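To close the chapter, one final illustration. This time we ask the reader to focus less on the individual chains and more on the assembly as a whole: which components sit near each other, and how the overall shape emerges from the parts.
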Amino acid sequence: MKPGDRKPTINDVARLAGVSIKTVSRVINKEPNVRDEVRERVLRATTQLGYRPNFSARSLAGQRSYLVGYLFGDAGGDYAHRVEVGILDRCRAAGYHLLVEQIDAAAPDVAERTAALVTQLRLDGVVLTPPITDHADVLRVLREAGVPYVRIAPDRHDDVSPFVEIDDEAAAYELTTHLIGLGHRRIGFIKGDPGHAAARLRYDGFCRALREHGLELQPAFIGQGDFSYASGLAAARGLLLGGQRPSAVFAGNDDMAAAAIAVAHEAGLRVPAELSVVGFDDAPIAGVVWPPLTTVRQPIAQMAETATELLLTRADPKRGGEAGETPPRHRLAYEICLRRSTAPPA
Amino acid sequence: MKPGDRKPTINDVARLAGVSIKTVSRVINKEPNVRDEVRERVLRATTQLGYRPNFSARSLAGQRSYLVGYLFGDAGGDYAHRVEVGILDRCRAAGYHLLVEQIDAAAPDVAERTAALVTQLRLDGVVLTPPITDHADVLRVLREAGVPYVRIAPDRHDDVSPFVEIDDEAAAYELTTHLIGLGHRRIGFIKGDPGHAAARLRYDGFCRALREHGLELQPAFIGQGDFSYASGLAAARGLLLGGQRPSAVFAGNDDMAAAAIAVAHEAGLRVPAELSVVGFDDAPIAGVVWPPLTTVRQPIAQMAETATELLLTRADPKRGGEAGETPPRHRLAYEICLRRSTAPPA
DNA sequence: CTGAAAGCGCTTACAG
DNA sequence: CTGAAAGCGCTTACAG
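The assembled structure is written out below.
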């Protein structure tokens, strides 16, 4: 197509193929009831003209915009990006495009902005990640607007929408049990942002492991963070620089675990000889600190792909599920990554 | 808006305000030539009905889609995400939305996919980052389609489009000079991905600093990486585990610098006492390794904001520049971040 | 299996 | 300063 050429429309294709625009539409949308011979003629005309259907026209006339939305909050950049790549993979395969929006969960106009987004752009579906995934106003707006949505790692399971998650509690339980198996008896924990369900679930799993192995929870060994590296630094100092200190620390995510390792370095504690540290997420930082972190790998991209798949299944009227159905709930497998930040206590 | 309610259209607003839809259109688009009294009446009707203009209809009828595209390649997740957040900030302020697409620069259908994207969605503008920012086919397609685009950190400066960058060469020169000022004479360098302009420019600045200070470039101290942590590991081993080793290493980015620190740890070299390490980017990893990295801070979000601003200025026919103008070129300030990974040689 | 007509919700170009 | 008409490029609902 040279500059200045008008973009070919469905009318041009119809004329060239000697059929009506409705027939072209049928071929483009892979609808039935077109003779093979006609279909091929239309396809040929399409190729010859370099025809590409206009999304605005499609969206205005029809039921679908071929647009998926991704609403993300202030979660880590790495997490948000991996989710995005996962969504993009599925969108590309299905001929959809991705519209992204950053939403400040604490802003007063969240609901208004969400409403504007879905009514103005007629999104066919929306993918939600923490903390937006549990934002009641956002969920209500989407429900009322009739826009299908899928939640990744939600806290509340009583919503009508499908969701994708891993079992944070079980993973934390398993990782804690690993520490106990190594011989650790004084184990500390750095909690994550209370606004994220995962923070609570991971702590729950930790507590259950201690309880089931007859170990006591020592309040002095429990620190409060918010998933950030800086908060991990502060919390780790509280746990490690006191008189009594734990022989192992479980941090609610890898950033805080990396901070705990840094504090250990500062304090002259050798990791893992004098202090074992574990994290959660298998973020990039996990493989890059010294020593590399024992952690739990979340299949983030796969969760996003699964979520998008669920969404497109519902968004497509032809593939769509019944309104009354139980929403599909997907729990994906996590993986414990044993690396060099853990060892038996001295 | 309760479920089941039909979304209000421009017709509903016109009827309620007692004017024609053209007048409503004028008010919505802030066009002149509407009496204040009428404008207020329309605005009131808009609010009362909760009217929000339909983007598909706007795009189909008019010149603009209110959609900006962001095409990114396989650059680091953190970089891509920070760019995205910067773009989103400006889009939000201007009433635009962001459509993202991941493009594999090496794929054979890059041009075709780009063409499909811009002709089907009528993007008002596109932001490009490395390595796509220098992809000749992509640039050609955008130019031919008449879609304005802005390039972030481009290699080739002979394109007609505006761009935003920092002076990588000068920054690398400055940082190298800092090492020399500390007393280092044997300084190694780990090169980044040759496909990225920044890799070459940073190396150029390094070489110029050595030359201007009468130091010799020692081939044994030059390693080849690709910006990844793993490549930095391999390159650093080559530099540090040989017989002669440098007293300082300049890595082409922070990931590779972090890898160099890890190799130093492995080899029992104290950083910075026995080895100084510097990186580039001020990525999250820079503040999180031990010791924290001396590096160059790129104002990534600000670059993205500037790029988006340039784009929206050109995309808007009312604000737009002339076709023959020299494209605006923006060079933003970088910042040298001195941290604890550098010290005078032993 | 195929097509003619209407319409989606706006903006454009023009008339007054 | 305001509006009536046409049209953007498709899909829907229906007729044959």
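DSSP finds twelve helices and twelve strands in chain A. Confidence is low (pLDDT under 50) at residues 317-324 of chain A. With these observations in hand, you are ready for the problems at the end of the chapter.
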